[in-house]
Write a structure and sequence with these properties.
The protein is α/β, with parallel strands linked by helices and about 350 residues long. The chain has twelve helices and twelve strands. The chain is elongated, with a radius of gyration of 24 Å. Keywords: DNA-binding, Transcription, Transcription regulation.
């Protein structure tokens, strides 16, 4: 088995330089970095993680706990965080809570046993008596992403969810819609609560009353959104537009439309949050509110790295990132109103 001295000899550098490449790559020139990594790859050298952790009192590992790995938002978020972490010499352990506190708590206990250096957490919306205690027991920096939690003093990176929902709803109203349904997540999740508030305020600004029958909690899940959409579209006074609060639920609504033989946007307009990778590949192309997912992940990792290095001190702050409305073809004037300009908004 190759040793660190073997790597140093092949790369014609000192053992100290090899150690810096492995543990502090920012301190090494690009030329030496490339030479040492080539030697590492050729020899198949792997440092002993446990021994390195004891020497440095650092494992080089970060934890990332997300709510639902099947959601493309979290998949893209992981990729952004993993790439940014690798550039700083960290590896990432990915955990999926599946939006349950039990699994979230299990992951937090496991990550503690792995002696991670820092954690990025997208917390579940369900209240948990154990979560704060488990996070404190980690005794490491924590950054929240996508969903903030009050009172814990952690840095957080979130979307301006109120604005995202307000812009989406306002756009549908501007197209002439008056019966706009919202398929949302649970109110216990801050993200969903803020999106509901933005939806409500956009209606109020247009002089429209909120109809509780048009608001459905689908738990941010595709199947639940599909079922909610079927109920809405089979009702006597069905909506002319549906606003979906995440990409999985948009898929569920599209399934319901197809099953009922309806046409979008002729029979029903759709506008959603999260710009799906294939949003421009379907017919009609989907009007969506895009989140700056990669920037959110990179910002969270940068905050965490500075906390780990001790270059960021004091109480945590919340970084709020802005959405962007992507206007395409799935949201248009209702069939009874040929031109959106005819609407009284």
């Amino acid at each position: 088995m190759a040793t660190i001295r073997d790597v140093a000899q092949l790369a014609n550098v000192s053992v100290t330089t090899v150690s810096n490449v492995l543990n502090n790559p920012n301190k090494v020139s690009p030329e030496l970095l490339a030479r040492v990594r080539a030697a590492v790859d050729k020899l198949g050298y792997a440092p002993h993680a446990a021994a390195r952790s004891l020497r440095k009192r650092s494992s080089g590992l970060l934890g990332l706990v997300v709510g639902d790995i099947t959601n493309p938002f979290f998949s893209e978020l992981f990729e952004a965080i993993e790439l940014a972490a690798a550039a700083r010499g960290f590896s990432v352990i990915l955990c999926n809570s599946n939006e349950t506190t039990e699994r979230e708590e299990t992951h937090l206990r496991m990550l503690r046993s792995q002696r991670i250096d820092g954690l990025i957490l997208a917390p579940t919306g369900t209240a948990s008596m154990n979560r704060a205690a488990l996070l404190a027991a980690l005794e490491i920096p924590v950054v929240l992403i996508d969903r903030a939690m009050e009172g814990l003093g952690y840095d957080a990176v979130v979307l301006n969810n109120h604005r995202a929902a307000y812009e989406a709803t306002s756009y549908a109203i501007g197209c002439g819609h008056r019966r706009i349904a919202l398929i949302n997540g649970p109110k216990t999740v801050r993200t969903a609560a803020d999106r509901l508030q933005g939806y409500r305020e956009a209606l109020l600004a247009a002089g429209l009353a909120l109809d509780p029958a048009l608001v459905r909690d689908a738990g941010f899940r595709e199947q639940s959104a599909y079922e909610a959409a079927l109920q809405l579209l089979r009702s006597d006074q069905r909506p002319t537009a549906i606003f979906t609060a995440n990409n999985l639920m948009t898929i569920g609504v599209l399934r319901a439309i197809a099953e009922l033989g309806l046409s979008c946007p002729d029979d029903l307009s759709i506008i959603g949050i999260d710009d799906l990778p294939w949003a421009e590949a379907v017919a009609p192309r989907l009007t969506m509110v895009a989140q700056p997912v990669r920037a959110m992940g990179e910002t969270a990792l940068e905050l965490l790295a500075h906390r780990i290095a001790g270059t960021r001190l004091g109480p945590g702050t919340t970084t709020v990132m802005e959405p962007r409305l992507m206007v395409r073809k799935s949201c248009a004037a209702p069939a009874s109103m040929p031109n959106a300009e005819d609407a009284d908004v």
